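This section describes the prediction task in plain terms. A model, or a person checking by hand, is given the sequence of a single protein chain and must write out its three-dimensional structure as a string of tokens. No templates, partner chains or ligands are provided. The sample shown here is typical of the held-out split.
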Amino acid sequence: MIKKLKTLLTVLCLIFIMQSCKNYYYLKHRPVAYNEDGNSIHDLKISNENIQFITFSDYQINKLNKKYIFFTTKDINRLLQENIKKPFSQQFLFMYTNMSIYNNLLGFYYEDTSLEDVMKDYNKTPDVSLENGVLYIYNFEKWNIIDIYRKYYGGVVRFINLNNPNENDPQYKKFHREVNNLFFDLNKNLWKKNAIDFQ
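The expected answer:
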């Protein structure tokens, strides 16, 4: 009996340690290429496919500078449970700008999920409809969040953009402009309907 109890305690301790080590700093990005404008071209592996995603050159991957990371693991755990009821299947992205006024960006893939499922879970009309995607803007605790979903093969990809809550950015204009330029200028080819200048 004591041996079984010790084994159970050991297993529980291991599970606790593994959970406490979990974070959302995805550091497995492939090497970056550059286009003629000096912007970074990322091949993001999602399920068994790749998606090309372009960023400005100040977006950081595969390294951590906590000065520019505006969240903790617990924050993202809560955010991921806020609107979508289904757990994500895969994380494929973590980036941040090396300027405090801009963006922390995470990417998740939800297998066997449709845009209709997403809209049902949010229980509100999207702020922007992109035909092959939807965009929601909302406040969550101390952050302004821009959630962008796109149909992708057997599911949806979710891009979560978080602002710096300590930055002086009235009405989130700098943050929204950054997300707008990133998703609807540099990556306009991802969308059937563009949302340039969303508010």
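For orientation: The chain has a mean pLDDT of 87.
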